[in-house]
Amino acid sequence: MKNRKKEILIIAIVLILIGIVATIIIINQKGEKAEDVLPTSASITKIGEAAFAGSSIRTADLSRFTALEVVGDGKAKNTHGVFQKCENLTTVVFPNSAFKMNQETFKEATVLNSVELGGVTSIGNNAFLDCISLGNIVFPDSLKSIGSNAFKG
Fold this sequence. Notes:
alpha/beta; five-stranded parallel β-sheet; four-stranded parallel β-sheet; 9 strands; globular
């Protein structure tokens, strides 16, 4: 009986992992918009490390996520930005509610050219590092701090 429970647990873990991989494949292969793969609920409070990193999304309209508090994990080492190396990402819109953008969020998103920062209160280190196409960005009154090398490149 004990071995059977272990087998069931292992099967469940494998199915979960397959689901995660399938979701990543869907984002990378078919997702042109980040909002198409996120829940429709506005209750998302955090978008974690590398959530869309390396994906093929072209736009991310996150304006409906008014409960958003933080974008990225904010760890100092071994971090991967939420949209890091999104080589097709051109436009991002954030909600007007207050939120924090952690480091390396858009690092190496080389064709990103327009960002509406909404209610951002802080932008972390290297947040837009090597975003060489960034041409349209408006800083809101809510912005209190900008980290080191945030717009370098």
